[in-house]
């Protein structure tokens, strides 16, 4: 059998793996009224933003306290909740989504996300300024490309600012996770009721007590189960950013030097910078079983992490702007130098299976306009038995594929693939042939 070798990457080659990620902040709907609400809160608070997205979290804006929400339900405060035995209806989901959008915009989260993009240095208008350092870093622009004062004077500069807006600000998302749960005790109680009814009916027909004995045995088995399963509703919101909004920001709000009037106008603006609801996803796996042993806190953290990851994968497939881009990490060759595959640091956490298909694309930037385009290069698929299990705590569980350093892909069509080119699952509308 021929051994595979990974092409060694130089420091320069490593730099080519830099790519434009979508930016994301995650928010939790906290249910203090629930027995395990506090543990879900702690689990959520300890989890980082998925590494395929840039962290755009805003301090103090990551939790919505359900006990402080009014106006969704007619009689009770708070969200329509997915509880044991109750699935949310389409109407309830729509009301939750709309109400959350209103809450986020009332909190002006969109404005503070713009402020983070442009490095607002202070909320004191007397000495506050903006800058484009974060945009330069995440977009791999040089300083002149996104120097606002210079850009506003040239066609190419305006194109660069427009490109940064489309590629970066317009790809900024908020994921609101409403997590409720089912415990073994709830399932056991329901099982006892169900078996008790069945047992009673059986006794009525037979005149004996075998039904009651069956119910007691089923209840004992149910009580011994120590499962904890979460029901996660994820609502996705996108920062609205277009040429009209950009024009308002650059003309009336942005300043690289102290200008109290412009900064105050930005702070007072409550209508320009908004988030819009774009998609919903629901995850609940009745058959989910975790291998290995967990203490309760880590069990909750692991289940919550995996549930949210599943929703992110489904949302990326459902809403194209939310798609994940991942660089080709290296080329795998055998001892004779023949290419046997391509490595990328993406795996089961991102929903990869043997049936997944990816486009390989090359990011190009027009030297005249500064605009970014994506050119199709090839099509690849994961290699059987070589899919990395990078889910939360997969190594602890000794899961198959958990010790792999990456997923191996094989080419099914197209041309030469090089490290740094991007993998995008499915078809991407911005790609040109």
Overview of the molecule:
This protein has 433 residues and is of the alpha+beta class. It has 2 domains: 5-17 and 324-432, no CATH class; 23-179 and 228-321, no CATH class. The chain is built from 12 helices and 15 strands. The strands form 2 sheets. Strands 1, 8, 9, 10, 11, 12, 13, 14 and 15 form a 9-stranded mixed beta sheet that branches. A hairpin with a 5-residue loop joins β9 (330-333) and β10 (339-344). α8 runs antiparallel to α9. The longest helix has 23 residues, at 184-206. 35% of the residues are buried. The model is unreliable at 1-5, 7-16 and 190-225 (pLDDT under 50).
Give the SSE layout.
Layout: E1 5-6, H1 11-15, E2 23-30, H2 37-46, E3 54-55, E4 63-65, H3 90-106, H4 109-117, H5 133-139, H6 148-151, H7 155-167, E5 172-183, H8 184-206, H9 210-224, E6 228-239, H10 243-253, H11 260-268, E7 275-283, H12 296-318, E8 325-327, E9 330-333, E10 339-344, E11 358-365, E12 372-382, E13 407-414, E14 422-425, E15 431-432
Parallel strand pairs: 2-3, 2-4, 2-5, 12-15
Antiparallel strand pairs: 1-9, 5-6, 6-7, 8-14, 9-10, 10-13, 11-12, 11-14, 12-13
